[in-house]
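To: structure desk
From: M.T.
Subject: fold request, one chain
Message: Could you run this one when you get a chance? Sequence is below, nothing fancy, just the single chain.
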Amino acid sequence: MGAGAEALHDPFLMLGMAAAAARIRQAVEQDEKVLVYGDYDADGVSSTSLMVLLFRELGLRHDYYIPHRTKEGYGMNVAAVDKAASEGYSLIVTVDNGISAVEPIAHARSLGISVVVTDHHEPPEVLPEADAIVNPKQPGCPYPFKGLAGAGVAFKLAQALLGRAPLEWSDIAALGTVADLMPLTDENRILVRSGLQCVRRSPRAGFRALAEVSGVSTAALAASDLGFQMGPRINAAGRLEHAAPAVRLLVSDNMDEAQQIAAELDELNIRRRSVVEQITKEAEAAWQERCRRAEAEGMPHPGVIVLAGAGWNPGVIGIVASKLLERHYRPAVLLGLDESTGLCKGSARSISGFDLYEALSTCKHLMEHFGGHAAAAGMTLKREHLDELERGLCVEAERQLTPDDYVPVSEIDLVCSPSEATLATIEQLARLEPFGSGNPVPKVLVQSSRLAELRTMGKSSAHLKLSLAEAGGQPLLDAVGFGLGGMAELLSGSSEADIVGELSVNEWNGRRRAQLMIRDLRVSEPRVYDWRGNRDPAAILLQLRDRLLQEQSSAVVIASERALPPQLHQESAAGSAGQGQAQACIQVCRPDQLPPGGFRSCEVVLLERPASWTELERCLQLSPDVAALHLLFRREPLREDWTERKKMGELYAWLKRLSPLEGSREAAARRLAAQSGCPPEAAAAALDAFAELDFIRYEADCWSMNAAPAKRDLSDSISYQRAVEERRLSDLLQGECEAIRSWLGQLARGAQTV
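Reply: Done. Structure tokens follow.
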């Protein structure tokens, strides 16, 4: 589709447009008073502002009315209609609402007031008897694009009345479209692209003031700035107080006035964040309690989150619903309870695959009012119907969703290496703008990236900062994960990761560099944490214990009981007696008694060296679910390798000198070690190998040389092979961490293929 006005559809293709335009022209000709009836969210404010600008240009006597979110709720109400009648209005034009206002519109008509409805929400079964209804989603409407926002429908009405597309107002239409999460396809794409160009070239006072308080540049404005910076400040007015100042901001030509209003909206937005944070904490606690009740009853967690709280501000609970959806990835309905009336007013957000409007329609008998679309909705109901609403929505979730639908999926658009994530690549991707709902920012997978640097940033180390490189190379790409600081511990045990994010440009001190905004990441191989130089392994163990309790996970600690910190020793004892509450998170395994069936837990901790490194390797090979290996044992200096053939020859020569050697294997090994200077375990291994090859014989508690041994190679001895392997693993596991990670990863891949 083209990018300019010529590519826009004919507005008169929309059902009801001709009647709506004719009624408004009649109002112009007869000098009627016209009231714009808007809504309090960013789309409603944008729609109202567009109508104000249109009616100014048409020379209409007009004003606007936006209901108070808390006191009046969404949409037209009879009291507001009575007020309009008392003030002499003969025509009401709704924007971003009205499609469900059957009773208020009937009341307006009874008072002699004409009503033109412009809306984009899903129409109910019974439509209001208005003079005209303009909504591309209404039955029988042939309009080719159904995804317009309320501001988009208002823009089409303006196009019909002016006989041209008023692209000078597309900035306001773009704000409403992006803020209401409409798909950036078809006409929305044209409106948003044109609107961004308007702001970049010559921003109106309201947009300049909003940009200043938001900390964004009008010259480089992106759709994401409308959605995440400007939109929330416009919304803040209606969420906490009244939306009227936001309309004044968008239609103002006075920069001083615009700056004052923008500053007020910014303060409201700060307050809004604080309120959201508090309600989110309360809602999360309520959800956890709801899940605990379900578990106690032997039931699964509800398929839909339905929560209500006294005093929860209905103006912000839609944001809280989005936050809970993001955390738990299931549809969320949040309601604020007014204890004086017993009414709950709420907002809902949905996941892919669950049509929220359809689900709510099956429960419409429980609600005083509801409306919305597949992804978002609002509703009002009595407190006593809350449990039944949850049951009804959960039944719908079972019908519409499968278990896989509850697993969030990161859609990948592009796979690249750190060296390919350049400014040139970003410039090429920018040709796909504007980005938003329906045309998201391309998700880039930077695969198997080497973690050259890892640190946290911000208050309480809340954010993650990585430097990514290719194998053996220098850091090439910075990656930032806001709110992902908690992933630092996971990544600190890894050398590489697969990272999904969005490429962006970081400008600092005149330098422009590519960076990746992290959206998801994965460590596919077991982690290795190297604590071998730490002077307080007990503290490390206790921190690990606390994390495992929080994650409801577990670990095996290879150590003798005497090596455990007193706290863990007590918990281990309590656990063995069946008295502890979370003792299972730490299990203790003696260094000389590794489990024959492998480890059946998430993480393995080497507090002491195992008696046999080959036995440790065997256990890990049997344990595909081991997620991490913690190295806490003391690192020993590298010793001579007595499995070398030259050294084995020296030991053989010593045996000839000492033969016959009396005593058990252990006694003979001690004497051989004392004479040759090798460790006792190396002497014992040599005795085993030479005996296996029949170079020496053990008879009558005495070790003696075979006078005529057959010529055989050392490698023919299984005992010698085992000693060589033991030495190799000892060197490996007391060596560099990168080599240990590679070894453990190979074991994990081998275990998964068995």
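Reply (cont.): The first strand starts at residue 33 and ends at 37. Let me know if you need anything else for the meeting.
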